[in-house]
Design goal:
The chain has 2 domains: about 100 residues, RNA polymerase sigma factor, region 2, helix turn helix motif (Rna Polymerase Sigma Factor, Chain: A, Orthogonal Bundle), CATH 1.10.1740.10; about 80 residues, Winged helix-like DNA-binding domain superfamily/Winged helix DNA-binding domain (Arc Repressor Mutant, subunit A, Orthogonal Bundle). It is built from 9 helices and no strands. It is about 70% helix and about 0% strand. The longest helix is centred in the first third of the chain and has 22 residues. About 30% of the residues are buried. The protein is mainly α. Keywords: Membrane, Sigma factor, Transcription, Transcription regulation, Transmembrane, Transmembrane helix.
C-alpha cells in the first residue's frame, strides 16, 4: 500500500531519508512542471527545485497538515513559489529583468482545466473563459497565496498591472456567475 505525501513528510521530519527520497520521487516531476509554467529559465527552475527540497528536508517538522487545513503538496508548492519569487528578486537586485513566465497558450492548459473541474461547473467554466493573463494573476494571488508584489515579480509585470488584472478578473467572474 502506497504511503501518502503527508505521511512521507511527517517521516521526513523525523529524519527518515527513504521517506524524503520517496516524497521527492512523487512530487518533483509535478513541481518542475508547475515551476516551468512560471519561468522559462531551466537553470533557475533547477535552482528553485534544489532550494525547495533542501527547505523541505530542514523544515518538514513545521508542516501542520490536514488539521491546519493544508495538504503536503500544497505546502510544498508554497515553498517552491516563494523560492521562485526570491530568485526573481535576486535577479532584480542585480538589475537584470527576470525571465517572463512561460507564455500561456490561449487555450487553457491541463492544470487550468483540472482546477476548473475541481472548483465546479459554473466557476470552472468562468475561470476557463478568462484570458490567460487574468487567469495567471488569479492563480498566483488566490491559489498560490502570493502578494501583489510577489505576483508582479513572478509574472514579470508591474504591480499596477497585477492589480488591474486582478480587478478585471474579479469583474469578469462576477458577471459570468450572475
Amino acid at each position: 500500500m502506497a504511503v501518502d505525501e503527508e505521511r512521507l513528510l511527517r517521516r521526513t521530519a523525523r529524519g527518515d531519508r527513504e521517506a524524503f527520497d520517496e516524497l521527492y520521487r512523487r512530487t518533483a516531476p509535478w513541481l518542475a512542471v508547475r515551476l516551468r509554467r512560471r519561468c522559462a529559465d531551466e537553470d533557475l527552475v533547477a535552482e528553485v527545485m534544489q532550494d525547495t527540497y533542501l527547505a523541505v528536508w530542514r523544515a518538514a517538522g513545521a508542516f501542520v497538515g490536514a488539521a491546519g487545513g493544508g495538504s503536503a503538496v500544497g505546502w510544498l508548492w508554497t515553498i517552491a513559489a516563494r523560492r521562485l519569487v526570491d530568485a526573481f528578486r535576486r535577479r532584480a537586485r542585480l538589475e537584470q529583468v527576470p525571465p517572463a513566465a512561460a507564455a500561456s497558450p490561449t487555450v487553457p492548459g491541463a492544470e487550468d482545466e483540472a482546477l476548473a473541474r475541481t472548483i465546479g461547473d459554473d466557476l470552472g467554466d468562468a475561470l476557463l473563459a478568462l484570458p490567460a493573463e487574468l487567469r495567471q494573476v488569479l492563480q498566483a494571488m488566490v491559489l498560490d497565496g502570493l502578494s501583489v508584489r510577489e505576483t508582479s515579480l513572478l509574472l514579470g509585470v508591474p504591480e499596477g498591472t497585477v492589480k488591474t488584472r486582478a480587478r478585471r478578473a474579479r469583474i469578469a467572474l462576477r458577471e459570468a456567475l450572475s
